[in-house]
Amino acid sequence: MVIEVDQAFIQEAEHRPKPTISDAGGIPVIDLSPILRYPIPSDPADPFPDELSDLIAEIGAACQDWGFFQVVNHGVELELLERVQAAAREFFALPVEEKRRVKRDDVNPLGYYDTEHTKNVRDWKEVFDFILNESESDLLQLKNQWPEYPPELREACEEYVEGVQKLAYKLLELIALSLNLPAKRFNGFFEDSTNFVRLNHYNPCPSPDLVLGVGRHKDSRALTVLYQDEVGGLDVKRKADGEWVRVKPTPNSFIINVGDIIQVWSNDKYESVEHRVSVNSEKERFSIPFFFSPALSTNVKPLEELVNEENPARYEEYNWGEFFKARKDSNFKKLGKENLQIYHFRKKV
């Protein structure tokens, strides 16, 4: 029996995944154990151990050459990962009517959803989104919708996020140092952060050559800390030659990528890179991205310390809350046009 796939999921020919994809020459794998042994220095001019110098240089090179890297020995307990994964599997195994009791809508973007679009093509996935700091404003309502079942989902998610958020702050400090900035240069932007977490579930797909779990895109926030299971499917566009490369799952690791906000803050030194998710016909896949995001009131622009006459600011200032709302509205329904991107704020130099 041939199962027909709804036209809404079908990618245009040039964006369909190839039958085979290389995982050779993949993204760097970085060992974070030095920060478990030594405190992160506060100033790039301070003396600190060679191990930390090497780590900061590795992170800078990965941000510049790839926009992506994997981290191991990161300090997040394996038990937290296992618990949140088990709860996510239980939630997504529920009947669809049960999951839709916590369905998100065009007012509140948090909760369950199974008809998201990327680049105006429907993604082959279902998601559950939640946020760390609930907020309500004229711009946005951000209120969590926790399901009744499984009852342990909320606690598992909240404890997991505490661990991952600590890691995200450490990575942010290492990235700041790699740009020759004080370690905590970015931290003030995150005081009323809009960090949010997504549980992703990708069912097996009868036409993995026509469909994507998530279409090609760049992350609009500052930093993404992603856990993926052993199935794999994350593809990154290699900056060196524009080829798609599969990120091979490494047990108990996180995949880190620079988002649009760091691209703007760094004035294009570190670039937010296009990525996508491929599906397969045999196995379901789970992943959990943590999106590290500043306060809605943050105005994003190149940092003064990284701008000079030879390297003028390449972006106009924009407000993160307004940008996020525009992106949320376009992801919620098919608008038939490109959603808001940072290149819309690029200055004509």
TrEMBL record:
Signal peptide: none
Protein name: Fe2OG dioxygenase domain-containing protein
Organism: Dioscorea zingiberensis
Protein family membership: Belongs to the iron/ascorbate-dependent oxidoreductase family.
Residue ranges occupied by any Fe2OG dioxygenase domain in the UniProt entry: 193-294
Keywords for this protein: Iron, Metal-binding, Oxidoreductase
One GO MF term: oxidoreductase activity
